[in-house]
Design goal:
This protein is an alpha/beta fold. The chain is built from eleven helices and twelve strands. 39% of the residues lie in helices and 19% in strands. Bound molecules: beta-D-ribofuranose and calcium ion (CA). Beta-D-ribofuranose binds at residues 12, 14-15, 38, 122-123, 148, 156, 162-164, 187, 235-236. Calcium ion (CA) is lined by residues 10, 12, 15, 38, 122-123, 236.
């Protein structure tokens, strides 16, 4: 079964891998929207256009979104994705530019044209919160939000906060309260699933695989300095893969997640597990099945 999807991204190396994998899987990507996060939104947009051009998919429309989080000041993330966000790999410039429509409106328009659409979110949730705030009936057209973000027991920015939700916690809280079914991949299953260089090489084959290895080199050089091993994490690809092949999920919880929003708090941007339900949170994955998902499409 294939799906119609809108992908919202702060493209990033693992975002790029996710976009490439969605294309290879045969997802009907009806549009890609961009948001500031790993790098500034102009750079994110350029990265997405270049990736699509490399993949021969200039037919996929790109819509630029939010420049900064709703309330938080823009933070500069660690330069683990390189200066340009895609491991400083210089892909050919795309002959195409982004569309004129801003991302939040594009999300609404595309969802109305494709009812039942899935929103795959790979970055801070600024565009998504804006879209649902501007157009409350958007809820009627979106069947599911699949999202990488949050931290149940382990964060990557702080002990309790994960980057995407930390960057724009108000937007995350807004989206978590929508009442739309959410499949969430927080940092927990990601950090428990390091992928080593040899595994990356065995998984991502061909010319596209070569590009992925080239982009991840920056990360592996960094990780080697800090940890003494060459490996990466694949947060955004895990959101795509667990949605498309739920047998990859070893354990999950059905609960609610909220964000700590207090500006004076050291915990601002941390995720808090509530008592409700409706948010399916992936806690553990089967690494072999996770890698097989990509081996089968590369
Ligand atoms: C998230 O932050 C970004 O660096 C990655 O692309 C991923 O979306 C992980 O915390
Ligand atoms: Ca991302």
């Amino acid at each position: 079964m294939t799906y119609k999807m809108i992908i919202d991204t702060d493209c990033g190396i693992d975002d790029a891998i996710t976009i490439i994998s969605a294309i290879k899987y045969g997802i009907d990507i009806v549009g890609i929207t961009t948001v500031s996060g790993n790098v500034y939104v102009d750079q994110v947009t350029d990265n997405v256009l270049r990736i699509l051009n490399f993949m021969g998919r200039n037919d996929i429309k790109v819509f630029k979104g939010a420049h900064k989080p709703l309330i938080s000041e823009k933070t500069t993330p660690a330069k683990i994705h390189g200066e340009n966000g895609i491991g400083d790999v210089e892909l050919e410039k795309s002959p195409k530019s982004e569309e004129e429509l801003p991302a939040p409106y594009a999300i609404y328009k595309l969802a109305r044209e494709n009812p039942g659409i899935v929103l795959l979110t790979l970055g801070p949730l600024t565009n998504i919160a804006m879209a649902f705030n501007l157009y409350p009936d958007l809820k009627n057209y979106v069947s599911k939000i699949v999202s990488m973000g949050g931290a149940v027991n382990f964060g990557n920015v702080t002990r309790f906060a994960e980057f995407n939700f930390f960057y724009d916690p108000e937007a995350a809280e807004f989206v978590l309260r929508l009442g739309i079914p959410i499949l969430l991949v927080p940092w927990d299953p990601v950090v428990a699933t390091p992928i080593f260089e040899e595994e990356l090489k065995e998984t991502f084959k061909g010319s596209v695989g070569k590009l992925i290895l080239q982009m991840e080199k920056t990360v592996m050089d960094f990780v080697e300095k800090v940890r003494g091993v060459r490996g990466v994490f694949l947060p955004d690809p895990m959101a795509l893969a667990t949605f498309l092949d739920p047998t990859i999920i070893k354990s999950k919880i059905n609960t609610s997640m909220h964000m700590e929003l207090n500006h004076g708090s050291l915990m601002r941007g941390a995720s808090i597990i509530g008592e409700g339900h409706g948010t399916e949170i992936v806690m553990e994955v089967d690494k072999g099945k996770f890698l097989n998902f990509f081996k089968n499409i590369f």
